[in-house]
Structures are given as C-alpha cells and as structure tokens.
Write a structure and sequence with these properties.
The complex is a heterodimer. By secondary structure, chain A is of the alpha/beta class. Chain A is built from 13 helices and 15 strands. In chain B, strands 1-2 form a two-stranded antiparallel sheet. The chains are: A alpha/beta, B mainly alpha. The interface between A and B is large, with 43 and 54 residues.
Amino acid sequence: MSYTKRQFLKTAAVTAAAGAFPGVIGSRVARAADPVKVGILHSLTGSIAIAEIGVTEAERLAIDEINAAGGVMGRQIEAVIEDGASDNPIFAEKAQKLLVSDKCAAVFGCYTSASRKAVLPVFERYKGLLYYPTHDEGLEFSKNIIYTGADGVQCAFPAIEWLMKNRGKKFYLIGSDFIFPRTINRISRPTITKAGGTVVGEDYEPLGSTDFASLINKIKAAKPDSILSTVVGDSNVSFYKQLNSAGLTDVAKSIVALAVGEEEARGIGPENLVGVNSCMGYFQSVDSPESKKFGEAFKAKYGPTRVVGDVMECGYISVYLWKAAVEKAGSFDVEKVVAASSNLPFDAPEGKVKIHETNHRLWKHARIGTFKPDGQIEILYESPLIEPVPFPKL
Amino acid sequence: MTADVLISQIFNGLSLFTILALMAIGLAVVFGLMGVINMAHGELMALGAFMTYVTSQFFLRFFPGLIDIYFPIGLVVAFLATALAGLVLERVMIRHLYKRPLDTMLATWGLSLILQQTFRNVFGAINVSVPTVSWLRGAWNPTPEIGIPLSRLFIIALTLAVALGVYLFFYRSRWGLRIRAVMQHRDMAGAAGINTARVDAVTFAVGCGLAGIAGSALTMIASTGPSTGQQYIIDAFIVVVFGGIESFVGTFLSAFLIGQMQSMFELVLSNSMAKALVLLLVIVALYFRPNGLFSVKVRR
C-alpha cells in the first residue's frame, strides 16, 4: 500500500538526515538552569489510545509533582509529548525525533510489546533511555530500557498459585491470539502440572474477536475449577458481557484475568464483572498513603470520576524512578543513570519496589482481587516481593 | 462430546449467522446494490452503538424509571441518526465519487479515520458501557445443561424483522421499485422519469440506517468504543462478497454458511484456527466462483 511506502520514505529521510549530521547529537552543553527535556511517547490516537491516554496522564502528573517540588537536581522537567498513533513505524520515527532533535534525557512510553520492539533499535542506536510501563511477556533485555511493569512470571505464577489453593486444580487457559497470552500459557502449563494440577483446555481467540459463544460453550463442557484469562482489549467486553448473559456466575468466580483492570471495567460494565478476579501489581484500592495520594492527585488533576490502574501506576513511578536514579548518579548521562538504577528502591503506590540488580525490571508485589459492583477491586491476596525473571526456564 | 454441547453449538452457529447477517445487510445495500465501497461503514455501525449509549444515558438521567424500555427506542434513534448521517454523506461526498471507485475507497477510509477520532474526542478513548435492559439479561434454560442467552434470541428476532422490512421495502414498495429500476438500468430509469439522484441518496441512507441498527443491537454482545467499527467491517465485507453482490438472498445464505462453519470448526479446533479455516474456504470458493456463491446472472 502507498501508506507503508510513504512511512518508509519518511523514516528513511529522517535517518539519512540524522546520519548526515552526526555532530549535532549531544553537542549542545546545557546550562544548569535550563529545563531538562524528557519524552512521553504513547498512542493518543488510533486503536490503542484507549489504554495509553491514561498512562500519558499519569506520567504528566508525576512530572508536574516533581516540578512543583523543585525538579530534578534543581532543573525543571519539560515534557515533549509525541503521538505514536497506534502504529509501530510511527513509534520508531517519533522515538528518533525525541532522541535526535529533542535530545530527551529519558523517554517514558510504549504500551504494546510490538511498539516497544519497534523503538528498541532506535534507543540502542542513539543511546537513549526508555521506561516501559506495561506488564509484558518478558523474553527481552536491553541496556537502554527499564521495564517497570510485571513480567510473565510475576503475572502468572501468583495467579496460578492462588487459583490452585482457592478454586481447584483443573485449569482452562484462555487468551487472545498473540505473543503475550501464548508465552504466559507456555510458562503456565509446566507450572500447573508440576504443582499437581491438570490443564483441560487451552484456547485462543483472534485479537478483537467479538464472539465468545463457542468458547463459553467449551468451558461449560470442560467444567474447569480454575480459568486463567489473558484475553486483552475490546475482546474482554464481549467475553464478560456474553458470559454474564449466559448466566454463568460460577464460571465468572473461577476466572483470574491478567489484563482487566479498573479502567477496562468501565467499558465492560462493572455489572458484567461481579465476582471475576484480577491479578495485577497495583489496584486503586491498595490501602497505603502513597496509593491514596496517587489516586487523589490523579482525580484532582483529571476529574473526580477517573480511576487509576496498574499500568498507569507503573508509568507514574517510572518518572520517579528516573529522578531517583539521576540524583543517585549525579548526572543525566544515560549510562550513569542506568548504572545507578541497579538495586534502586522506591516507595511506590504499589508498595516498596526495587529495580533488579542486573535485569532492568522491578521486584514487585502481585495482588489478586475480586471486582465489586462499582468496578473497584476488593483485594483478597497480596504476594511478597517477587523477583523478576524475564527469561524463565521452562 | 455430549449432545448438549452439540445443540448449544448449533444454536451458537445460528446466533452467529444472524449477527453476521445483521452486520452485512446494510453493506449489501450500499456495496452490493450501489457498488459503493464504503470503508466507513463500520464507523456508521459504531455511530449507531454510540446513539444507543446516548439514549441510555438520556433515560438514566431524565426517566430512570423507564430505563427498561430505552433499548427499542435506542434502536430507532440509531437507525434515524445513521440514516441522516448517510444522507448528508451521500450529498456531500459519495455522489461526487460514483464514477471513481478507487477514490471512493480512499476517501471513505479517510472518513473512517476522521469519524474514529471524532468519537474519541466526544466520548473519550475508553469504551463506554451500554447497559443491557433487565428483560434481556440472563439465559433461557430448556435443560439444565443448555443455556440460550436472551440477548441472542433478541438478535435473531431482530434480524428476521429487519430482513422482512428490507424485503418489503425493496420488493413491495414504490420506493423499492424505483431503486431496483435505477440499479438495473440507470439511463432508462432516468428516461422513465425517476429522479435517479434522489434514489441514490435514499438508497445510501437506508443502507447506512441498517448499519446503525446493527451497531445498536451489537452493543449487547460487544464493546462500544471509537474503534468498535473495525471489529465488524471485515466480517461484513466477507459475508457480502462471499454471498455474491447484488443478492440479498446470497448475503443471508453466506452469513448462514459462515456462521455454521465457524461454530462447527470451533468444536474441534482452537477458535483462531477455526476462523483461519473459514477464511481459507472462502478464498477457495471465490477462486472458483469469483462473483460469489449466489451471484445473480445479469447482462452487462
């Protein structure tokens, strides 16, 4: 299509221009009083904007708070906001712009693994620093990326353990058909069998699928005790609406979903989610001063009906983690900031977290809770700090 | 595999058939009959869904006691609003592009992006929740193992009603007669005194209105958000193309075949493999019958 070709030409032109003036990069020496630029790179338009706009807002909130408290090493933060438009080549192009022409000290951004993989070579080539906030399947490491969301092990293991203990040993695995669910289930299967459970079914729906009648029928026939769901996005609306209209409240109670948070609940309709369980690092209902402060500050800035969720919290703490690392390093230099990040602790809304010594991910808590009729989550279980293992042994 | 599972699955196929038919029928008018490739057809369905949402919010705010009757009203509002949008669209844009099918595709694709972003700005990027009225919640259980969701029964009934309405309009009314005359031989129909421009506008508006009804009904089973239309558009095109354009019967038979194949394959395959297999069979069928399974023989 001509569209892709145009994108290619644009990217090629930018690359050529950047290559022609290598001296420009990093040549300007900033004075101490200058604001320091950081990038925010999320989809503000297109199909994934649904998830990313909230994260952008949380990151802007953190930047405003830090600026109000005096900035980073005496310098105010200036955010350059770019729109990835739910299109991976555009993400790569904008990442380049943020690093090459804006010279951002750090970039907070991306939501899908695909968009992260599109910007990864750009960050490595121009020695930028990306903070990535989404829980993902792991299986990646870059010296230029800090991953603040949970990895596959941190998502799935606590959920499986909890289901085993509280629901039963007969598992059904369902998911949308792409890398995250398939990887999670590849990790989950041996974990379940090792713990003495059985997997009676594993099923994938195409991304964006709207008809779940057959899947619901199959689940009914297999009669599992526990269901691990990695269905994502709009499909969740269809799944829970159709489950509810089939009148299967027992099935709902046996589900732990890894990708349904408070924000998604608003679109699904909280009445369709009552009894369903969710496993994430952070829920708005976490009862701690940091969590309350985050929720209230967000509502004060963006409106009283808004809710916060896991990925938004990870975006929010990304900015603080960067600030702490910069201050520990005494420098905005990417290599020094990354080195200072090793073992860096932080009092986050989700509790005390710590960046791992070597793998650029966070030691995190996992929480499991049940949806209440108002769309908020009643927390039933809270794990101790779990070590991130982005490359699990299967 | 027990008989209960099989019976449920046959019902699911039937339900999928009516959902696909409902999605496709508006497109069968706009694309099949008029030959306009409207890439924004999905967004018109989303418009219908949003109109239903607006109606529900209106009732929640002003007549919370009458919330149970909002849904039929939402359907009518969705039909009228999208038909009106279609009328405006035809007058402003489509009519200038009748002779340029490729440009129509590009222009309507651009329009679909504009509409998506408009929804995002007006209703927010996050999906909205359209409440299901109490009399359509839950399921009918003929046996303890078989549960037939009421919302799906409603969609089956609605599709039959819409099909009947379309039949009466196109084959039993003066308007339908004029539309068919214009579509068969435009110049001759014009010479016989039919205002062909007006017929075009009305036909397009009716096709869009049908999309609105589909979007409104599908709020019961799927999401309502800015990108909702994208979930439906491809399936709708497949049904119309597979059935053979210019044939309402073909559209319905094709929806029936695809729906039943899909749900039967899903019994034995994973759901995404089932979808892939259905698409493969459609491709093979179109290879041997490029005009679709049930194309009407017309002289060109």
